[in-house]
Design brief:
There is one protein chain. Helices cover 46% and strands 15% of the residues. The chain is of the alpha/beta class. It has two domains: 58-188, Spore Coat Polysaccharide Biosynthesis Protein SpsA, Chain A, CATH 3.90.550.10; 195-273, no CATH class. Helix 8 crosses helix 10 (244-273) and helix 9 runs antiparallel to helix 10.
Length: 276
């Protein structure tokens, strides 16, 4: 479990974790410089706490170090702000490994009740209720995921930047390993980001990282087309529900995302591939 300044939700997450039908696990929590009451809340529950300075937090490096000291053959990743939706989240996630061919699996995520409507819509699209839907074969989220230790030993996490989950899954799929989606293993997880925070997140994770991982290049015409498609989807979602505020906010929200995607790819292209 990774945490930083999640005092508002981490007690709920840990409480639900210890209500699971499967309880024979060890909890390793790494906190990267929380300045709120997160660490105090972690100490109310069993488990081993490791604290690191926020400036030393590199996602893949931290995950590799924690998995290295874990003793289980099955490793589960659960963000401190990804709250199990019920007592069978872990059982449903781990039961899939009764099939020896399954190497990696991840949970469905649903938005929190206080999530903005466009955020809820994005989660509905990204994490369908019945199957992978239109997910790319290498899509995964480490907010709630599990894998065999031997799979990680053969292919540790990328340690040079963000999007370590997508980088890892992409390489596994190229090597012939399937990523399994478990829609009945559910966590509650979402963020209402400010425009500035949204831009920063998408610039690095949706822009620069995708150049490095997938070789995507900046294309302003394609990005513009994607922007208009996204707004059209929002209208079709919001209009029948009478979500008037979402209709007005959608162009701002989607423009921020797609501008960040484009600029992130522009910056990432010469860095990773030597051309713009």
């Amino acid at each position: 479990m990774r945490s930083k300044n999640d005092g508002a939700v981490i007690r709920e997450t840990l409480s639900m974790l210890y209500k699971q039908t499967i309880c024979n696990f060890e909890l390793l929590n790494v906190d990267s410089g929380s300045s709120d009451n997160t660490v105090d809340l972690i100490r109310e529950f069993p488990g081993k706490l490791t604290q690191i300075p926020s400036e030393s937090y590199i996602p893949g490096r931290v995950l590799n170090s924690m998995v290295n000291i874990a003793t289980g053959k099955l490793i589960v990743l659960l963000n401190s702000d990804a709250t199990p939706a019920n007592e069978v989240w872990l059982e449903n996630l781990l039961n899939t490994f009764n099939d020896p061919t399954i190497k990696v699996a991840f949970s469905r995520q649903i938005a929190r009740n206080n999530a903005w409507e466009l955020v809820k819509f994005d989660y509905l699209r990204a994490f369908p209720s019945a199957s992978r839907g239109n997910m790319p074969p290498d899509f995964i989220s480490f907010a709630s995921a599990a894998f065999r230790r031997e799979t990680w030993e053969a292919s540790p996490f990328y340690e040079e930047g963000l999007a370590e989950d997508h980088h890892w899954a992409h390489n596994l799929v190229k090597q012939g390993t399937s990523i399994t989606y478990i829609p009945h293993s559910i966590v509650v997880h979402s963020h209402n980001l400010s425009i500035r925070s949204l831009y920063r997140k998408e610039f690095y994770q949706g822009g620069m990282a995708r150049v490095h991982i997938f070789g995507e290049q900046p294309d302003i015409l394609a990005e513009g087309g994607s922007f208009f498609k996204a707004v059209a989807r929002d209208i079709l979602y919001a209009l029948p529900k009478g979500l008037i505020l979402s209709l007005f906010y959608s162009p701002i929200y989607r423009f921020t995302q797609h501008l960040a995607f484009y600029r992130g790819r522009r910056k990432g292209a010469p860095r990773y591939h030597g051309h713009a």
